[in-house]
Amino acid sequence: MTATERVASALVWVFAIFAIIFLMTPLVVTVAVSFGSSAVFTLPPPAWSMRWYNQLPNTRGLWPSLATSLQIAALSTAISLVLGTLCAIALVRGRFPGRDSIATFLVSPLMLPGLVVGIAMLQGFKAVGLREAWPSLLVAHVVITMPYVVRTVLAALSLFDFTLIDAARTLGCSYGKALRKVMVPALAPAFLTSAMFAFLASMDNYPISIFFTDAWTKTLPIQMLQFVEERPDPVIAAISTGLILLAVIALIIGDRLVGLRRLADF
Amino acid sequence: MSAAAASLAPTGGQKDRVAWLAVPAVGYLAIVYALPLVFLLARSVTGPEGFTLSLFVQFFSDPYSWRVIWNTLRIGLLTTLVCLVIGFPVAIAMARAKGLMQVALLVAIILPLSIGVVVKAFAWQIVLRRDGVVSQFLVGTGIWSEPQRLLFTETGLVLGAANVFLPFMILPIYSVVKLIDPRLSEAGATLGASPLYRFRRIFLPLTLPGLVSGIAFVFSMSVSMFVIPSLLIGDRFQMLATLTGRSFLLMRNEALGSTTAVVLLVLAVSIVVASSWLAKRLGGTQ
Q: Are residues B48 and B173 in the same domain?
């Protein structure tokens, strides 16, 4: 190794350590503030306290918005899983033209500005007379969750050996049983990881949801931003810490199912 | 095709039937997502007397609009630059890292990806305060002589945005760096190439497709961000997305909002299209 290479290599590690600190800063700060006694976000906290967590049960608007977010995320993920998987099977097994374009189209909501997609859908829903918040949110969130499902399930399906199904049928399984016993277990990790990340994307969405909420039906991020604007206090950090915990659990499950390295595949 | 030939190709027929499985998902997105976008575009160029560009003429003849566009592009470029400078070496580190370091890097990159932008932007509001972590650190190391507030400044905005989008720079670069055969560089060294020459002529060309898609991701996301500027810089500094949001949600000015939305859409789509074209070209020349 020459001197230049040694310097370059050292620099790479310095940047890596800096990046780890930089990326983890908001999460660490949030958790620290949520367990601190200071109402003005003093860091490091003068004393540790659970007072912000004790306020959670009485925080107006928090629980209904959490319930709405959970319902919308669960339902939209389920719909996307069914539609997305069927479509992924068609794209992998079919020999029709335009398969690449269809895959790009289904993933494209990830690449466009959420706010613009939200506005377009708002005007579209209005035009067909869909005005109620809850169903509008559900219909919109299927568009948010679909890319995650299609991307992951498509990648897993293109590695799946379909002759295994024929083999199972030769051995006496019915077609349905062959799918259930052979294909579903092989794809289970892909289903679970894509469902998890689709669910989190729906739970966290702001720029599309903002157009479909009203005074009674709000999703959690919308309610949280309202808290931030009205009375910024560490209760918000306590809610955030709950969401961070959810992400940590998802990461651990994802690691067990497919490994951290596969989760980083882009 | 004769009847005999058709009956000889049952698998072909079955595979065509499989195509129907794509219809529900494609139909759903076409109706709920693509069609409204087309209508948004169509309505922005339709007036009472048919085709018109008057909304855009009005928008682009206002000097305030140009300031908003310049704000958007400047913040987008700065954020992308910060992400590139940090992300490129980190992607290399990720491809080389082993053991604990690798786990730490993977967690630090993947975990923030599954945490909402409202959570992270709120955290940056705390970090960027006068008595916040960044100010304490810079005063502690002697770079700053006294604490300063970074919240509601452009520097603070770029810092927060770079933090949120950094994983989208690292991951695409990492995905190409990890495929590079280390023996290529060794071969170059054996043939007498200097480290700098090897980096420029072997390593850089091979990583270019990853760099292009990382830059495109971060740039298109940072020109269309909405929550981050709302929380980190406030209403006095407008970007295309914040102006679009404000027009719809506060000012009830749908004409202005639709115009800025279309400008933003065209900008984002052209970044995606240009970058995928570029990445394909660069990928093809390898």
A: no
Q: Which domain holds residue B29?
A: 21-52
| Domain definitions of chain A by residue range | 1-49, 59-263
By the 8 A CB rule, do A75 and A140 touch?
no
Which of B104, B166, B257 is nearest residue A119 as measured by Cβ atoms? Answer: B257
With CB atoms and an 8 Å threshold, state whether A94 touches B16: yes
Is the preceding omega at residue A234 within 30 degrees of 0, hence cis?
no
Task: With respect to residue B168, please indicate whether it lies within any of the assigned structural domains.
Answer: yes
- How far apart CA B113 and CA B106 sit, in angstroms, is 11
Give bridge partners of residue B50 from the DSSP assignment. Answer: B47
A116: which chain B residues are within 8 Å (Cβ-Cβ)?
37, 40, 224, 244, 261-262, 264-265, 268
For A265, B90, B105, the CA distances from B101, given in Å and listed in that order, are 18, 12, 6
Q: How many domains does chain B have?
A: 2
Q: Which residues contact A167 (CB under 8 A, 6 or more apart)?
A: none
Per-residue pLDDT of chain B (286 residues; tens, 9 = 90+): 444 443 333 444 555 788 899 999 999 999 999 999 999 999 888 888 888 898 899 999 999 999 999 999 999 999 999 999 999 999 999 999 988 999 999 999 999 998 999 999 999 999 998 888 888 888 988 888 888 889 999 999 999 999 999 999 999 999 999 888 888 888 888 888 888 888 888 888 889 989 998 999 999 999 999 999 999 998 899 999 999 999 998 888 888 999 999 999 999 999 988 988 888 887 654 4
Tokens representing B151?
Answer: 């919240």
| Calpha distance A94→A187 (Å, rounded) | 18
- Give this prediction's pTM: 0.90
Chosen CATH of A59-263 out of 3.20.20.70, 3.40.50.300, 1.10.3720.10, 3.20.20.80: 1.10.3720.10
**ipTM of the shown complex:** 0.90
| B133–A116 C-beta distance less than 8 A | no
Shortest CA gap A26–chain B (Å)? 5
Residue pair B223/B263 in contact (Cβ under 8 Å)? The answer is no
Picking from B110, B118, B264, the nearest residue to A224 by CB comes out as B118
Is A143's CB within 8 Å of B261's CB?
no
- What's the rounded Cα separation, in Å, for the pair B269 and B110? 26
